Structures are given as C-alpha cells and as structure tokens.
Automatic annotation (TrEMBL), chains A, B, C, D:
It holds the Pfam family Beta_elim_lyase. This is Aminotransferase class I/II-fold pyridoxal phosphate-dependent enzyme. Residues 27-277 form the Aromatic amino acid beta-eliminating lyase/threonine aldolase domain. Belongs to the threonine aldolase family.
Length: 342, 342, 342, 342
C-alpha cells in the first residue's frame, strides 16, 4: 500500500529520530526551558532574520492556532479567514471555543485571501452590535495547496496596517510553501505579526514553532500555552527536533523533496490528460480521476476523496511528504497508465 | 419628529406602566420567585397550550439567545442559522462567546431557513474534525420581516427529528409574527424544543419569555440565567409585565396594531409606485426610496438605512410598533406624496 | 408582613417612577445613545469628579461584574477577592464562565480584603504554571455590611501599584457605604481603576453604573456589554433613572435613610442585649436571635437566615432600604421586646 | 548532576523508544485510528477489566484534565477538588478557562480528599446563586505523594452516588500509586466515572490514557479532544507507546522501580534522622534538610524547593522515576552522610 493520504503518515525523518535517541537519557529541565530549545530558538531566529522574535514550541497545529488567537484577541475581536481556512472548517470550532468568531471571507479554489475579500468583511462590521475584526488568518500553503507570493503578503500587510488588523499566518505546511518559491521565512518575519512553522508535516514526529514578531502579542504567551494544555512536560523533545530541522538546511530540503514528488505526480497525470481542481505548486495535488480508474487503484494506493462529480469522476487529494519515495510515485503513475489505457 | 427607527423607541404600553406603578411598593421576593411571575407563567402556559413547558423570564433578546444556546449545547455542538439570522450577525459574537460556532445557512431576502439549506450545512459536517450541528436557530419574524407558516415549521421540525437537531425559535418580534397569520403560539409549543416570546418590541419596558418544551433542555436553566447575568433581582417586574400582556389578549392586540400601521405604510407607498426589497406582512417594511426624497423627509421622520443603491435610491427600514400612531403614518405618506410629486 | 429580606423587595423610588412615567412616550434612540443617558453620564462624572471617566449603564450587578472582568482581563489573568466576595460565592461562577479564576483571599467576618491577605495570594502565584493575579475585587459595602475607609483603599491602591494589579470596586451597595462615612465617590474615582455604583439596591427599578477611570480598560467596552447581553434596547430607562438619582442628591439621601433604619434596628436590639456577628455601620445587620423568638416573629416579619448555632440561636440578616419605613422598624423592635420579655 | 527534580527529565524507556524506531516508517492513518491505538485500547481495557470503557489517548496531563472536565460538565457545574489538587493550583486556570469553577476542599498534608471535606463543600452550594458541584477530582498519587486505598475510593464513590457527583481520578502518577499498593486498575474502573493513566511520568515520551466508564460522559469525546487541540496527527505514536507499556507488565515494573528508588532515599534519610513533611509511599519524597547541607549538595544534585522554614531547614521534593539509577540514590545518600557528618 502506497499512501498519498496525507503528510503525517510516517514518524520522523531518520536524522530527527536519531537525535531523539541520542538525547533520550541526558536529563533536561522540563517545559522547553532546556538548552535544546534555547538552541532551536537561536537557529529559528537566525533563519527568520529576527533576533527579537518571541519563539515558542507547541505540539500540534490546532493547538498552535487556538493558543495564538486566544492569546492575541480580546473577547469581542474576531478573525477574518478565507472560507476554506483551516480554522473556519477543520478544527471543530477550536477558535469559537476560545470565544472568538471566525469571519469567513470569500475565496477562490486556491484558498487565498484577497485584499478585496478582506475589505468586504471588514466593511460589514462597523459597530459594537457586531464583532470587531482584529486579526487576519491565512495559511501557507493554503488548504488547497496554493502559495502566497511576497507581493501578495505585502498587499495584505498594507491593508492590515490601514485597518488596524494583525496578520497571522498558519505555516502547518510552510516547508512545502518555502520550497515552492513562496515568500521566504525572512519575508514572513517582516510581514506577519505572528506565524507558525510546521514540523509535523515536514519531518518531525510532532511540533510547530510559533514566531511572534509583534511584542504586544508576545506578552505572557507561556501562560496561555500552559492554560490550553500545550506546554509539553518533556519540552526538549521539541527543541531537539527543531534544532535538527534548522541545522544544515534540513527543513528546506524536506520541503523540496515533498514538492518534487508532488510535481512528478502532477506532471505524470497531466501528461496523461487528466485535469486538476487547482494549479498547485506544492505537496498537495487535486486531480480529477475517473471513478472506474480509482476503483482499480484503491487496493494498492490510498488518497482522500474531496468531491464526487456527476460526470463519473472524483476529485481526490494526493499528498506527498519528506517520506514519499520515488518508487511510490512511479508505481502510482504506472498503475494509472495501465488501468486507464493511456 | 416621527420615528420609524425601530420598535423599541418608546417605553411601555400604558396598561403595563400602570401595573408597574400599582405594584411598585407591594413587596416581593426576588429573582422571579414571586406571585406575579407565577401568574404570568400560568397565563403563558395557557396561551401556548402546554402546562409542562418550562417558562422563564429574562431582560433582553441577546441575553435570551445566548442563555438558551449556552444551556442547550455541549462544547462541540453548533447552531445552524440563516446567514442573516440575528445570532450570526447582530449579537457581537454572543454565541461564539459561549464557545459555540454559528453555521450560516444560505437564505434568500426573506431571511428564512429552508429545509434544503439546512440539509446542506448538516451534510458538510460529517465528523469530529468539524463542529457537530445540533440546534437550528430561526427567528420569527425574520430580520427582514418574513413570517413562518405552520407548514414551514412542520417541515423544519421533521428534518430536525431526522437529523437529531433541536429547533429553537427567536421570537423577539413574535407579536408581529402572530398577528401576521404565522404559526400560532400553540403550534410553536408543539414544534419547537424551545422558543422565546418578545416583550421589549411589543409593549413591555423590557423582557422576553423563554418557553422550553424539551425537558432535557430545561434542566438547571435558572443556574445558567444567573451565571450569565440574566436573573433580574426585582424579577417580579417581568412577571407584572407579562401577566398584563397575556391577560385579555393585549399581546396579540399590540402586534396587530403594529402590523396595521406597517401595512398602511406599505400600501401607501405601493400605491405611489415604490417598490420593496421584500414582501413583508409584518411590522418591518423595506422600501426603496429616492435619495432626493429622503433628503426632504429626514428632518421630520427617522428610519434606518439598509443599503444605498447605484440608481440614486436607498433601501430603508420602516418599523412600526404598538406605539406608532395613525397620525405618524398619515404624516409620512402625506410628506412622501408631497415631496415626490406623486 | 414587614420585609427585612433584602434591599430589592420594592420597585423604584417615587421620583424615579415618576420620571419613567413622564418620559414613557417621548421617543428615544436605543442602546443608551439618548440624551437621558448623556445627561446621567454628565451628572455621574460630576459626582465622581472625573470628567474623563468612561461611564456605562447595565441592568444588574452580576452583569456589571462579569462584563467588567471579562473586558479587563486577558485569559490567564485572575481576580483576587476576599473569600466571602460576591464573585467568589454568589454569582454561579459568572467570572469563571468568562474563563477567569477567582483567587479567594483570607478575610475576617467583615469581608474586607487586607493588604496582607492580598500579598499572600499574590506571592503564591509566581510563574506560568499558575494563573497570574491581575485584578483586585472588593465590594463596598462588603457582603457583611462593612465599609472601606479612604485610608484602607489608599493602602490597597498602593499595593496594587506595586504589584501591577487593577483595583475594582463592586458598588452594588455603594449608596449605603457612602452614607456610612466610607470613602467618597471622588475618592473611589481617584483610587480605583474601575468601580460600579449600584442603583438596584438604592432606589432604582434596576441599573448599575460602571465608571472606568483607567483608559486602557475602557477600550471597546460597549462591545463587551453587547456581547454579554447587557446592552439594554431601551437604554434610556437607565439614563432616566440615574439622572434622577444624581440630581439633587437623591442617591445619597436614599442611602442615608436605609442606614438610619438599619442603625435603629441595631441600637434597639443592642439595647435589649442581643449581640451581632459583626459591627456593621450600614444597611445590613447580622444579629444573633434566639430560635424561640424567631419562631414567634416569623408570621409578621421576613429575614434571611445566615447560620443556625448550637446554642439555640440563629444568625439572621436584616436588610433595610430606601423603602423601609420607620413603622416597620418600630413594629419589629416592639415585637422582639414583647416576645422576648426584655 | 543527578536529577531528583521530577519524573519527566528523561525521554522514553528503551523498549518504548525501540518500538517508536521500529514503527517509524510503517505508515499509519492519523488521529489514533490506527492498529497500534486499537491494540493499546484492547490491552488497557483488559488491564482495567472493563471492555466497555471508552479509551482515548492524549499528549499531556493538563490536556487530559481540561478535556475531560470540559466534556463532562455543563456550564454551571463545578469540580470539587482538594485544595492542593493539580487543577486548583498548577494548571494556570485551565479548568476555569473552560468555564468551570474549581471548588477547593480542605485537605491535609497528604493532599487527599476526605468524605467530610467533600460533604462540606457540597452543603455550601445549595441553590442556583452558586455553582452546582457535579464532579469530584482527585489525583493518585496526590500532589504530595499519598496513595488512595480501595476503601477510601469506595467511600468517596458512595458519597458521589448519594449526592449525584461524578468521580474523576487524575492518574498522572498512577504507575507509582499502583506500585505502592493503592487501589488497582480494576478497582478504579469499578469506582470512577473516568480516570487517566499517566504515561509521561512512567516511561513514555509523552501520553496519557483517558478511561471513561460512564457511557453518558463518553459521548462525542473525540470532538472535544479535537476542539481542544489534543488530537495528535500522528496518533499512532501514542498507541505504540501504550501497547509497549501494557504488554508484559512494563507499566507496573516501571512504577515499582521508581518507588524502590524513592523508598531507598526515604529509608536512608530517615536512618540519618531527617524528618519528612508526609509519610509518602510513592515516588515523591518531601524531607526537611538543613540549608547548610543543601548548599553543599546543590552542585551535584537537583531537586525542587517546596518551602523554606524559619529553623534553617528547607522542605524539598525528591522525585524518582523509571530512569532513576541506584547509583544516583547511593551518591545522594553518601553525599548527605558525608556533608552532614551523620
């Protein structure tokens, strides 16, 4: 069974696992107050080019988003997010559970927030009978694999400054976004009030970095992590993983590999004439494949179904990761070729 | 200045004010444990035809909605409401502040929830990565003045039973809805798990009745009222008002008067050729009037602006109430006629 | 039946009721944006000697406290309150329902917070594994009738400044505290970041004023009122009541009357040899009376039972208000005298 | 440096680390829907003797507690816990952040909840002006190392049944409690509505098992885990760890080892005449040691300071774990002996 189900089907990259093995018994203080976390914080600060950024580690993505928004917003303040944004749809109301409304902005199939859609939501909330929009949530890559350019982020930043909004970027799949030529880590540190760097989907066993550039938002952040159950007792496990990922460019390499595998799938399927729901440059691909073909593939490969169409095709999601092997891609394309008679 | 701004511009109907004056010094236990509240509960129970219904009083509409949804829902459960529903738009995220997501269903200009729109939202939430739809919120009249028929509520009830959803009806303007021939109080008590009967907009100084038919939802409701700041110390003030409204049919009469005044405005304006954003049978009317005309009217009359249109007209909202006098309606129509040269 | 049950057994003082009657049909904009509220805000600002204070009106006391603490505190921040403080005990967890812990400080039978007790709680919360104390809650009068002197408040203010804490005073019974010679309104405005002025228990039908001196705490306060269901549609009802209370010294007079009635009860009972749980100078008195005596009184008078003692006495609470008549006090003392054979 | 700081200074037991290494690349579905989690659930169900128990895995202890209480309680319901209980003190208000008050019951230096203390809190909360006690929280071992006997739990269960309370046991240090002869896993499954089995402090990298016996409390629990950020993407990491701990008795063995090391410290120090704050049979020991001695030890050993006493001694906490070596214990006792001249 070759899995294109998601980018968290395997454990950790061997270098990370090795580091965890080697440090297993060394003894460390808890709650990310250890030398590994300190070192990882230094490496991340260097990578994003901002020694003043507050850098924290948490275990998962929903935790990162809900901890940040809980920390950043006052009770009546709301987040504006693209309608397909993770916090709007796939986090079981985690943001609302902290008391904040998520305002869904119109977005296209790329899942990106445009300046126009942002302004439209903002204008619809003029007074105290409505929530007050205060934070813009975007994800990079988006939920449908698109990647923000530096220019797009600069445009959003400008509107945020004009309207008094924070800009927050969910980087659960940032490794893939960076490798796809999107805005750089240094750009993010300049343009976002806060952003996350996802480890879970890019080689770590688990773990997300939270980088807070706006000092107003950084105050007492560890209290909020602890209150929301995110302060890992053996916090150095996060430090060890991120010092490995941010030494010697491993984080970037793993994103590049994931993208290469995804683009090989894309090109192969395009070459056989199949179309895609969006033109993704990253590690998620959304082809339309005939139901009869999928029926034949399903014993040997795994994917997620996005939508079944009336024309006997299905939009599926194929996801690659640092762990995807060329062999899996070749096998998939070979099987498609064989079963579809292309 | 004649006000068509809203239906809460004046104090209480004289009979209610009189009752408050008469009982002012009689001395009562607090927190709605007094004989007036008991009597009002009996009268309401009789009016809705359900002696088993739990009946509570709170001061305002947002309080009623947020107290109910807070009491009825578990943390991961969400409300489905029409996109224009009050809880979605005009309560400053009060429902989200209790931790619950409001899922906006598509709706037309009448602001009603259809069975199709309800099913569509429900189907989009299949598993634990998303909130669990658990309650259907509708308002009657809707925010744009429409009124649910008994058949429409029966259809919603049927889907709610099928899908395991509670049906909750916000009756902030129920007086007008009843008078417009919508579903009766007895219908509501049969079809809704819970609903409110608005006093603020129908002759009371303040006050909403909460009627809970589903015994599972009624448990410990007074705790939730108290916790959310809604347990009025001098609770008999609510009892006195609702025993007045529900004795001798005053509640119905006031709704009828409000509607008569609104329909007189509607017919008058229609007779002069003006069109409306929706065909409202109730105390809110949404005509399109020329900007030049409105400019001339604005010193003598007050209304709310809904939307300015490119064709030099504006959609306004005219609201009538128990306190609106025929004289005000006549003056408005006369002024329109005069200034528009119809 | 003469009631000493509480200070909210009757409606409004006749002058207030009269003002409500007179303004009933004048027509006003909603949500406290009307001239009566503006006028009341001016009068209160003048009375507290701070034209810069933000002044808001809400319906009830639990609402005032939970709205303020919700608005003032970040998620991990906690209130320190005397163990018998209203928010600790009698608000059904309203503060916790906004996410904030109430840290109970040791206090004596007077219910006052001392500097020592405050410091002790603060010192026990040194790091992010615990909540961060951020606000000091006191009530004046306290729940057991005690009154803070200006010197006591100055001492608390000094510690608050030292430790970075807000000072919040719940004035649900402030009328009685002022009349008992406690810190003046102008003192409160100088010493507290925010405080409330209770109307419900001092002549109003309902209503509490929130005065926020610290501009950082005042930001967007109307959003929080609305979100928590406290923005009264017919907001001018609050304005009319408080402009009456704060014109011509009515607020002070009503507090004085309540205290006079209470002190007459106290002196009468002391003269007959009965002892008290505390030496209250205000409108709540807590005598110990023999059970046999109470048995004889209970048909004609009403009070609250605080605690039954092993020595066949009961600690009761006698509360007076603006509405308590000399006749009631005389009748009570006469009956005690008669039944106890003193 | 020998660490007696806590029981989470090292990574995972070698057998667990080995299992993680071996399964690293096998590919699994996410969110604990994999065969390892299924297997671990079977093994735990067997160990607790209840095949009907709902069994879930989360990453940490605060997460386990706050997820459970959030799932189990309605908004007005409160937890009763010993005053030193973890949720009362050391979780940064995580329970209050879900809206629920923690009612602190008096407890002795052993940190146990007695039936009397429980009843006292319950009796103080009779009506809707106060929170409604609904759940009893205890921890085993307690925060000061004590262990509940089966008889003690039976007595608490009986009161819980009488008063309509849930019994919840926080087993963050359950490995040590079981090894100290406290109530067995099967007893817990019979007596508790829900309890947790801590992995973090007993050989796992991270992870706690939540066992819910009361089916009413189990409904939709995965939604709450997800909403609160606790649904680990690579959930099989939890499954792999707990199937290792619950195969071949490893969980019990590790608890026994930790206790043996702790009791060796205890006996050694007692033999030298030092006294203890409590008579702990488990892996936390709380001796009083002279400040001068501690000054000499501090370069080679690490511990936590609990309290400094006026007699120039300090109460410290020594914690052992599965990873504590005999060598460390010997070195500590040797150093004490040497420096104190005993």
């Amino acid at each position: 069974m070759y899995r294109f189900t998601n980018d968290y089907s395997e454990g950790a990259h061997p270098r990370i696992l090795n580091a965890l093995n080697e440090t297993n018994l060394e003894g460390n203080f808890g709650y990310s107050t250890d030398p590994h976390c300190d070192h990882a914080r230094q490496l991340v600060a260097q990578a994003i080019g901002n020694p003043e950024s507050a850098i924290h580690f948490v275990v998962g993505g929903t935790q990162a988003n809900s901890t940040c928004l809980c920390a950043f917003l006052r009770p009546h303040e709301a987040a504006i997010a693209p309608a397909t944004g993770h916090i709007c749809v796939h986090e079981t109301g985690a943001i609302e559970a902290t008391g904040h409304k998520c305002l869904a902005a119109d977005c296209g199939s790329d899942g990106k927030l445009t300046v126009e859609a942002l302004r439209k939501v903002w204008q619809a909330h003029p007074d105290e009978h409505m929530v007050k929009p205060r934070l813009v949530y975007i994800s990079n890559t988006t939920e449908t694999g698109a990647v923000y350019t530096t220019a797009e982020l600069e445009a959003l930043r400008k509107v945020c400054d004009e309207l008094g909004l924070y800009l927050y970027l969910d980087g659960a799949r940032l490794g893939s976004a960076l490798a796809a030529g999107g805005a750089s880590l240094k750009d993010l540190a300049k343009l976002c009030d806060a952003f996350t760097i996802g480890g879970t989907k890019n080689g770590a066993l688990f773990g997300e970095v939270v980088c807070i550039q706006n000092p107003r938002l950084a105050e007492d952040f560890r209290y909020i992590i602890k209150q929301r159950g995110g302060l890992l007792a053996k916090g150095w496990l996060l430090g060890v993983q991120f010092e490995t990922l941010f030494a010697d460019g491993l984080y970037e390499q793993l994103g590049q590999h994931a993208n290469q595998m995804a683009l090989a799938l894309k090109e192969g399927l395009q070459g056989m004439g199949f179309s895609f729901a969006s033109d993704s440059p990253s590690n998620q691909q959304f082809p339309f494949l005939p139901n009869a073909l999928l029926e034949k593939l399903k014993g040997d490969f795994h994917w997620e179904v996005i939508a079944k169409n009336p024309d006997n095709t299905t939009q599926i999601r194929l996801v690659t990761s640092w762990a995807t092997q060329q062999e899996a891609v070749d096998a998939f394309l070979q099987a498609v070729r064989q079963h579809s008679g292309v």
